[in-house]
């Protein structure tokens, strides 16, 4: 038995750029220095640019293309987009760092320990340039018993809390928003645990993260950040949190962390043992393989040998990995409904899932502004009813699959 069968879900076409571009994007992200291949002709430019924006990978592609001398070989429209993306993110990262510095100083001045998570921690610690790690929000971790105090401090910084439709016991962070430097929007997520999803909520105890945390990079050294091994496991768990749909910027985090962990001797045995103890070995293996596909991440053979101790996986590890499976999507939606605070919130969640807005359907099916959307809405509704019926009949979304003998599995 090996980890090769455990992979992340394919990103839907309406979010991803055209598949014909995959090889060309991977060559740039992997830092290929040989003669560039001609960019595919006839691709939908809007589709390509929308996909790059969703993946948040434009600045890193620009830097890799510039450093390898391939920027001038790209189509003008693509090179211009990557250049604008890089310089826009550079300006945003400077403003965000000023805002984050103020928030960290205000929290620590009140004796509230704070830990940077995800992009906020990695932008300076593993990337050579903070502009290479775009962020839609800032993620901070505090201890649960300091939550109310932290809310008051952040309210004093001009941030207002966004109401969550989820029940308090099924939530793991609060969202806040306000005006940042230069009038730009500032979005912050204040966590007191890493996840509220049933298979994930107990996987990485926050006390373990605090115990092994290290000072953040200057100028935010008053804060803490996870050490590299914990950051890698959190990145893998974050992919499961998002149902196995990997934005390339998240896989870039995995790639950079693997490079960091490969440098010191003795790091991988600790990380592998920790992954198995937390039942994260399957999602970690899936994340490593996907990073290798896109970035050419060199995962040491020794790492796979160490992770082999987690095979065959236990029930808890399989439950975590199930979040990355297409067959579990209906179950995840039912879990989300159960976590809503009120009946009205449940109805609103169902409405958005079953009857999304016109703009969503146009983006999903690459439709023009004047195209009729009702046939696609009916198709979506029918597909949702079909998948829901299968979930109810076959227990948790387990679809009928051919068995090893070629026969269909019997209904339980």
Fold blueprint:
Layout: H1 22-29, H2 45-55, H3 58-67, H4 76-109, E1 115-117, H5 119-125, E2 138-141, H6 147-156, E3 160-162, E4 173-179, E5 185-191, H7 206-212, E6 214-215, E7 224-225, H8 228-241, H9 248-262, H10 267-277, H11 281-295, H12 301-307, H13 315-321, H14 329-338, H15 343-354, H16 358-364, H17 374-393
Helix pairs in contact: 3-4, 8-9, 8-11, 9-11, 10-12
Describe this structure in words.
- With 412 residues, the chain is α+β, with helices and mostly antiparallel strands.
- 50% of the residues lie in helices and 7% in strands.
- It contains 17 helices and seven strands.
- Strands 1-2-5-4-3 form a five-stranded mixed β-sheet.
- A hairpin with a 5-residue loop joins strand 4 and strand 5.
- Helix 8 packs antiparallel against helix 9.
- The radius of gyration is 22 Å and the shape is globular.
- Radius of gyration from CA coordinates: 22 Å
Structural class: alpha+beta
Low-pLDDT stretches are 395-412
Query: How much helicity do the residues have?
Result: 40-55%
With strands numbered from the N-terminus, the spatial order across the biggest sheet is: 1-2-5-4-3
Beta strand %: 5-15%
